[in-house]
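Following up on my earlier thread - several people asked me to post the actual chain instead of describing it. Fair enough. Here it is, all 406 residues.
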Amino acid sequence: MTDLTLASSRRRFLTQAGLTGAAVLAVPGYAQKLADLAFVNGKRSLDSSFPQKGEMILQRARPPLLETPMEVVDQGIFTPNDRFFVRWHWANIPTSVDVDAFRLTVHGNVARPLSIPIADLLRMPRVELAAVNQCSGNSRGLFEPRVAGGEWRHGAMGNAKWLGVRLRDVLDRAGIKPGSVAVRFSGLDQAVVADAPDFAKSLSLDHARDGEVMIAFAMNGEQLPMLNGFPLRLIVPGWYSTYWVKMLNEIDVLSQPDDGYWMAKAYKIPATPFANVAPRQKDFPTVPINRLIPRAWITNLPEDRVFAFDPALKVGGIAMGGDTGVAQVDLSIDGGRSWSPAKLGPDAGKYSFRRFDGIVRPAAKGPLTVMARCTNSAGKTQPMVANWNPGGFMRGVVETTRVTMG
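Reply from S.P.:
Thanks for posting it. Predicted structure:
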């Protein structure tokens, strides 16, 4: 990592934001503290050496790709900041930020270009929203045939209460000129090789101004950890995390569609239901990845464990509705031939995880395959057959948990 050698000004930020939280760390490196893990798609390590992070599954150290263990997800619908997954595209990311010198710039097709200090943002009207942040490639390690990319299992996701300001309010201060069609966002991370494209993502103008997209300065009541985007992060509820730009420092209002690499070439999915194509299929139309889809995970039954036989086995986990709320979660132990409803926990908002708990009734000792299936409030249900695409994006199949009743 590259250190920008900037002061943190932590106390002032915390006072202005009305928050408490971990210090902004300036750490030029990290010590290796690893423990080997048996992982379904290869050997991984449990790492506890990254600043402001507890034990995380190490996918890659440079740039940091850190996965949340599923036992953390089982502990509650909100993911602790120190166990929240991390995914960066470029390894050259700041390890410290001077919040006094930092400015969020807004330019392009606007009437009044802005250079906004954090102190000014903190004085604007605030909003808080619970939303799942899920990597486009979450569960990529389970794709068959295998595909290239970060070999995540299910922990490239997290849920938090995000506190910040509406993007719409910031754009209105700049004054959007007629003819504007999109808004592009980029952060403080930098490419490590010459001529590599700056990581930048864009939203249509209508989406950017929908009142839900926000600029967050806190998560779960604390300031953002450095590795999760301090001091500012774009929050795009119901959309994959490639749009949730970290260390946000630049907003560019465009008068034509974004033709940059990260929109025109990267993170493209087949323009088919569930982004599904045959493994050898070519020349299919694509679109940028966008909305989340419903998913459910059983979290209280670790895979491949032996449990004492129980004729009324408790099954619990978390579900997400994607771009809308969770309406129903059903359980099956006969391969999906029959389903029984689970009880849903409290609703923290349509973009949040939601807890489910239920009972399944195995007839005898031996291997048991348990399934959980989510249906969202728009009536969309997880499919029984896994999708496939060359990017390993947008997995949404009903997941199976295999255990043994002893």
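The mean pLDDT is 91. That should answer part of your original question.
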